[in-house]
Amino acid sequence: MKKQDKQVLRWIGTILALILFLGWFLFWPLNSYVEAPGNATNLRSFVQVKDHPDPGKGSFMITSVALQRAHPVTYLAAKAVPYLSIEKADDVTGGQSGATFDRVQHFYMQSSINEAIAVAFRAANQPVTRKYLGIYVLQVEPNSKFKRAIRVGDTITKVDGHHFNTAQGFQKYIGKQKVGSPLTVTYERNGRQHQATRRLVRLTAHRAGIGILLTNNMKVKTKVPVKVNPGQLGGPSGGLMFTLQIYEQISGHDLQRGRKIAGTGTIAPNGSVGEIGGIDKKVIAAHRAGATIFLAPYIKPTKLVLKYEDGHQTNYQLAKKTAKRYAPGMKVVPVTSFKQAVRYLEQN
């Protein structure tokens, strides 16, 4: 082979190697995710309350975190940018498949919306009823005898023919049974009812169970129809802001007063606000969208609490620190409940 031909082949080999490296660098999926600031969106476009339009001239904004599978190039970028973070895939999804993770996040969002409607209507002295559907399956443990029958996303409506109005009712009944005894479970999946009979497994030294992680599945009913379409958003962290938006519309009380108000936090049946993840990214997203107020969940930062907090900072501490650096001029307001948020917006 001529010297010139060898040189051409070396050039071709070098170019191919470079192309392969660039392809790997740009597109090879890693077992981690990059978390970045997402969007802050006006909730007026999500919420419809029949015959009760939004009276405010400002806006309530729901904030989100952008979550993308990491590639070598985005991984390095996240290392270089302080407000980006890298999370292991299992820490994000809990080891669930993408489809299962999305299903659970969708359920959390719908539950959050239901609680928001109930809390807002009660605060506005409007009638609202809650119906307990059953226990929603978040995870099936590997040792569960029901693992080939029950799936994540199913709702258990009866055990041995008995329906209870709380998860505690189901757990109390099952807890009275013995390890290894059969239990018939009635559950719904995609609107269809199914049954399965399996033996109970040992959960603790003195307690038997199905072997699942669960949460309550509730439905609310109001005389005034409410429609909420969260689009692609998932998770429970929009609870507080949905409650404020629905309350403003059903009560006709202008809390916005021309301001762009963003925030985050879960909402409980009693109106208390709970902490969430990624609040630093949400503060930046809110600032980019022009928000002047950010409502952040507050808990007392005791030594025990800080020991288990992400980065050893509470939501409020991290939000305030992030705003000081990346969102000058935006006020971070600590809130423990929906009522406290309303009180602040009325008085300030």
Q: Cα-atom Rg, whole angstroms?
A: 25 Å
Report on the biggest sheet: 6 strands, mixed
How much helix is in the residues? 25-40%
Q: Cα distance, first to last residue?
A: 84 Å
Structural class: alpha+beta
Strand order of the largest sheet: 4-1-3-13-16-17
Would you report the number of β strands?
A: 17
| Quaternary structure type | single chain
The outline comes out as globular
Uncertain residue segments: none
Q: How many helical elements?
A: 10
Strand content: 25-35%
Average pLDDT over all residues: 93
SSE topology string: HEEEHEHHEEHEEEEEEHEEEHEHHEH
Structural description of this entry:
- It is a single chain.
- By secondary structure, the protein is α+β, with helices and mostly antiparallel strands.
- It contains 10 helices and 17 strands.
- It has helices at 3-27, 72-80, 89-93, 98-123, 167-175, 239-251, 279-288, 303-308, 315-326, 338-347, and strands at residues 32-42, 47-49, 59-69, 85-88, 128-140, 155-159, 182-189, 192-199, 201-204, 207-209, 212-222, 226-228, 260-263, 266-267, 273-274, 293-297, 331-335.
- A 6-stranded mixed beta sheet has the order 4-1-3-13-16-17, sandwiched between helices. A 5-stranded antiparallel beta sheet has the order 8-7-6-5-11. A two-stranded antiparallel ribbon has the order 2-12.
- A hairpin with a 2-residue loop joins strand 9 and strand 10.
- Helix 4 (98-123) packs parallel to helix 6 (239-251) and helix 7 runs parallel beside helix 9 (315-326).
- The radius of gyration is 25 Å and the shape is globular.
- The termini are far apart.
- The model has no long low-confidence stretch (mean pLDDT 93).
